[in-house]
Amino acid sequence: MPHDGHHHTEAPPDGWKHSGVRVIPADSLDPNTAQTPGMNRAAAINAARVGAQKIWAGTVHIHPDAKTGAHHHGHLESVIYVVKGRARMRWGEKLEFVAEAGPGDFIYVPPYVPHQEINASADETLECVLVRSDNEAMAINIDIEPVEKPETVLWVDPIHRAPGG
Fold first, then answer.
1. Cα 126 from chain centroid (whole Å)
2. What is the block-wise mean pLDDT of the chain (165 residues), using blocks of 10 residues?
3. Which DSSP category does 67 fall into?
4. Whole-angstrom Cα distance, residue 41 to residue 29?
5. What does the pLDDT look like over 12-27, one tens digit per residue?
6. Distance CA 47, CA 13 (A)
7. How many Å is the Cα radius of gyration of the chain?
8. What are the counts of helices (DSSP H) followed by strands (DSSP E) for the chain?
9. What is the value of pTM for the model shown?
10. Ordered structural domains, the chain, with CATH
11. What's the CA dihedral at 122, 131, 47, 29 to 10 degrees?
12. In sequence order, which residues have a C-beta less than 8 Å from that of residue 65 and are 6 or more positions away?
C-alpha cells in the first residue's frame, strides 16, 4: 500500500457506519446547554451527542429587540455565522465597542472577551450558527455596567482597510 504522508486510523469494526459521518437533523438539537439570558442556544455537535473532541457547534436565536446579558466563554474561541436577521455585537470591559453583522457575515470572538449579542431588528428573529473551539459549552455570565454610547469599530485587517481609513 503506498504511503501518502497522511495518518490513517484503522477502520473500526463497523467500517465507520455508526462512528463515521453523522447528520444531526434540525429538529433534534439539544437546548440543555449553557444558557445566557436573552438568547436560546441549542447544541448540535458536542462530546455527549457525537463524541466531538475539539469543537462544539449549535444554533442561537435571539428574539426581536432582545439582547443577551454580558458574558464570555473562558478560554474558548467562538465563531458566529449570521443566517438571518441583524446582529449587533457589543464588547469590552464596559461593552464600549460595537459592530454589526448581517446574513452571510462571520463574527469571531476571542477567549475571555466580555460581549453581548443584540438583535438589531425590531421584527425579525436573529438566527445564527455558533462554533466553539472545545467540546464544552461554557458561558460565564458577568455583571457589567455598559457605557451609554459604544464606539463603532469597523473591520480592519492587514489586507483590508476600513472605508475612508
1. 13
2. 66 90 90 84 89 93 91 94 97 96 97 95 96 86 87 78 59
3. B
4. 9
5. 999 999 889 999 998 8
6. 21
7. 19
8. 1, 11
9. 0.82
10. 38-152 (2.60.120.10)
11. 30
12. 119, 121, 122
105 burial level (CB within 10 Å; 0-12, 13-18, 19+): middle
Strands (E) across 29-135 are located at 40-45, 56-62, 71-72, 78-84, 87-91, 97-101, 106-109, 115-119, 126-132
Matching residue, cell 481609513 = 165
| Residue-level pLDDT at 6 | 66
Tell me the sheet residues that pair with 140: 72
Whether residue 56 contacts residue 136, with contact meaning beta carbons closer than 8 Å, is answered with yes
User: What pLDDT score was predicted for residue 160?
Assistant: 66
Distance CA 60, CA 52 (A): 19
The total of other beta-carbon atoms located within 10 Å of residue 136's CB is 15
What is the identity of the amino acid at 93?
Answer: E
Q: Three-class SS of residue 138?
A: coil
Looking up cell 425590531 gives: 122
Cell of 82: 449570521
